[in-house]
Amino acid sequence: MQQVFDYVVLGAGSAGCVLANRLSASGRYQVLLVEAGPPDRSPYIHIPAGYLKLINHPELSWRYSSEPDPQLHGRAIAYPQGRMLGGTGSLNGMLYVRSSPAEHARWVSQGCEGWSFEEVLPYYHQIENVEGASPQNPLPVCSFLERHPLSDAFLQACREAGLRINDSINGPQREGAAAFHQNRLNRFRGGPAQTYLRQARSRANLTVWTGTLAERLILDGRRAVGVALRGGSGSFTVRAKREVIVSLGTVRSPHLLQLSGIGPAGLLQELGIPVHTDLPGVGENLRDHYSVRIAKRVQGIRTLNERTHGLSLARELWNYALTGTGLLTLGASTCAAYAKTSPEQVHPDVVLSFAPGSFEPGTYDLEKQGGMTVAVYHSFPESKGHVRAKSRDPSQAPAITPNYLQASEDRQAVLAGLRLARKILDMPALKPWCVHETMPGEDMQSDEQLLSYARAKGVSGYHLVGTCQMGQGHDTVVDPCLRVHATQGLRVVDASILPSGTSGNSNAPTLMVAEKGAAMILADAD
After folding, report:
1. What angle do CA 369, 371, 372 make, to 5 degrees?
2. For 92-104, what is the mean pLDDT?
């Protein structure tokens, strides 16, 4: 017998976990949450530094990659999106950075009424339990347990270079430098699966299915009425009395819409998919931060590199087991500077993200010798890519084409950011430990050399957004209430709806989108 729910939420990533919690909270509605991956049982998920073991995990990461890009020396860029309860919120580096007023002003100017910073700020307030001060809120937002001396020195170097030092990365002033906050529950990851979803799992009106792939939406005329799924027992369907909510993320949300006949008519016809709704914007407008690193060899102080090998790693494991402190509580980075590349910029347009460690070129594998890194990216990338289905088979990954550095604004911001990073790393606060620059190397000085290096060694910042763009124009996919254009009973609620990206990390804005989306869904249900 076909099962029927009030709401079917596809994808148990960050947004899906929030939706499952909020939609089931009253007990009035039957809610189904569907996840293609397994439960979040791996210890690598729950130990903060374990995310490095998840990036290429064959079961817990989708391990997407872009199409080879001739502008990036023919390289394919890796996208290790989470494939488990919590999605990328169970795989990421746990850094919590709100969206800024500047990006919200952009969204409102693009037709996204109701999405000003002032209007979304209450949703951030109901998400965050900052340093334990709001225990009624689901998500822990806290300082790092360990303050590395090089991180403090980086902040002092930013001051010496003329930047303001802020008390919080999420304070009223974005321009300047500050330490990151992370989503950590004592010694463990405190992501959306470990908070929002865990809180809701005991409710009788919430059903959670893992190991279940969404194959296509079921449409009756202009209304979404259910979903075709594939699980361990084969293919089957479920129905939604009220709404189907797609929360599969920036790659899979547009992919599912396309497989269901909602997307660019030309692409669908080419794949032999019957066109239900010709929406040219589905899968377009892909934005991501293209991250380019400056690294220096370090001496006279232990960095993350030396602590991850041999007896040092054994001591870190023992320390974590006994006290819940040390290296294994750290995330992807420790602090960052938001800066303007020129006086003409109204808002900070580059991010310099610092880590007291260094990586093998083009990877997230720590080097063995001591090092430190500043990753540079343009806050508001103008280069636009796309995500497009390759076939009608839902198990085949779509083609991802990011078009990094295509826009001149992105190239200029990266060049200016690299020069600013060098300036900061040369300040007196960091001089005692610096040996020499390892990436790109001190012989790389001209714009042409630095841009060639950026194309050859840059990586994704893992902040993909935009492929189901919110707004009112011809190329948009959802309206400001996140309803898919020309379709009833269907919304997209995740990072794919953001119209022009976030100035920093994308997980906190995704949670905000889900909180606001849930409120709008429930308001329509009353």
Report:
1. 160
2. 96
Is 129 in contact with 141 (CB distance < 8 Å)?
yes
How would you write 52-79 as a 3-class SS string? Answer: HHHCCCCCCECCEECCCEHHHCCECCEE
Which pLDDT belongs to residue 224? 98
DSSP structure string for 187-212: TEE--TIIIIIHHHTT-TTEEEE-S-
CA dihedral over 160, 164, 170, 171, signed as positive or negative: positive
Tokens of 503: 């100035």
Backbone angles phi, psi at 491, to 5 degrees: -130, 160
Dihedral class, residue 63 (left if φ above 0, else alpha if ψ from -120 to 50, else beta): left
Q: What share of the chain is helix, strand, coil (3-state, %, to 5)?
A: 30, 25, 45
Q: Are residues 44 and 50 in contact, defined by beta-carbon separation less than 8 angstroms?
A: yes
Q: What does the domain layout of the chain look like in residue ranges?
A: 3-525
Residue 332 has pLDDT above 90, yes or no: no
Give which of 350, 345, 352, 354 is closest to 378, Cα–Cα.
350
- Ramachandran bin of 474, using left for φ above 0, alpha for ψ from -120 to 50, beta for the remaining angles: alpha
Q: Which DSSP string do the residues of 362-411 spell out, in sequence order?
A: TSSPBPSS-EEEEEEEESS----BEEE-SSS-TTSPPEEE--TT-SHHHH
At the second CATH level, the architecture of 3-525 is: 3-Layer(bba) Sandwich (3.50)
CB of 296 within 8 A of CB of 437?
yes
* Mean pLDDT of all residues in 221-233: 95
Rg for the chain, CA atoms, rounded: 22
pLDDT digits (tens, 9 = 90+) for 498-508: 999 899 999 99
Q: Using CA atoms, how far apart are residues 336 and 262, in angstroms rounded to an integer?
A: 40
Q: State the residue for tokens 């189901």.
A: 468
| Catalytically active residues, by annotation | 463
How far is it, in rounded angstroms, from Cα 466 to Cα 283?
8
Residue with tokens 């009112």: 472
Q: Using omega within 30 degrees of 0 as the cis cutoff, is the peptide bond preceding 440 cis?
A: yes
pLDDT band at 232 (very low <50, low <70, confident <90, very high): confident
Note the helical H segments in 10-127: 14-24, 43-46, 51-54, 101-109, 117-127
The pLDDT, as a whole number, for residue 361 is 80
What average pLDDT does the segment 405-425 reach? 98
Distance CA 221, CA 217 (A): 12
Query: What whole-number distance in Å separates Cα of residue 305 and Cα of residue 309?
Result: 8
Confidence of residue 364 (pLDDT cuts 50, 70, 90): confident
3-class state of residue 107 by DSSP: helix
Predicted TM-score (pTM) of the model is: 0.97
Residue 29 corresponds to which tokens in the numbers above?
Answer: 């509605």
**Cα dihedral across residues 267, 271, 277, 282: positive or negative:** negative
Residue 393 backbone phi and psi in degrees, to 5: -80, 115
**Measuring CA to CA, which residue among 379, 382, 386 is closest to residue 402?**
386
